Amino acid sequence: MREGTQDGPAFYGDEVLASREQAGVSQSALAKATGYKVPYVSKVENGHALGSERFAEGCDRFFNTAGHFLRLHRRISDAGHPQWFAAYVKLEREARVIEDYSTTFIMGMLQTPAYAEAVFRAAYPTESDAGIKAKVEARLARHSVIEREDPPRLWVVLSEASLRMIVGNAATMGEQLEHLLIEAQAPTVTVQVLPFDASTPASHLPLTLLTPHDGPAVVYEEIRHHSRVDDSAGAVAEARDVYERLRADALSPDRSMALIYSILEEFTHEHAPRPHPRHMGEVQLQRRDRRSVRRVGPRVRIIRRHPRP
User: Fold this and answer.
1) Spatial contact of 257 and 249, defined as CB atoms under 8 Å apart
2) Which of 92, 110, 190, 300 suits 81 as a labelling partner, its CA being 20 to 30 A distant?
3) 138, 140, 85: which is closest to 110 by C-alpha?
4) β-sheet bridge partners, residue 97
């Protein structure tokens, strides 16, 4: 057990570790019971990651703790968000359908750890490392919503600018775009890109429509230092109209994947370290040899604030 002041993930990890040791079972047994691998369990127990809601539910079943780990997970996750965002996080967890439009940054639920950290470090330059870590963990915990056995239908429209703007560095962007391509393969996730050559966007501000299992939809809108969750019929209808126009102007899901792939290739090749002049002969030889190798991957045509917590 760690002594002294602990952050949320560290405390949660100690709770998992204590329950496992009390039950007298191995990490391998817990991993098998929760549907994860041993390194994942180790990462949670060491406080390096909060883990997902699915893992928390698995722990509750395995240790027969009547929802303790799920409640603790949600409490720690909510604590990492500012108070004005907590209402949104709760609605997000309970939604049947989530429809999001992101203009500057890729939607928080789909961000990688490195990308999320870069976003927060840019937005909060004086924040401590511990503070940044807490914000990143809270954001990553939101991903568990789409890991559930009954995930919501997630539909995301991303501006092309959010894919091309370098957040962190080229390596961070490459990892983020690869992650986005993988997430988009899920049957409940649809990603569309609003390209630069589309008509003038119906909105330049991000918005999210949340439709619960029962009850009316709500809209979440934000500008710098201000946000609102509005369930009034007029606000939801207006947001729905804007979102439908954005979705209509965006590329189809297949063409969106092709564009993301092409941008990923640009980051991979254009931002790669350039060889020293004396090695150019070797590089040219490698390029000549590659001409005889069939290209893997789709042939694509390149179509030339304050972040959410």
Assistant:
1) no
2) 190
3) 140
4) 153, 211
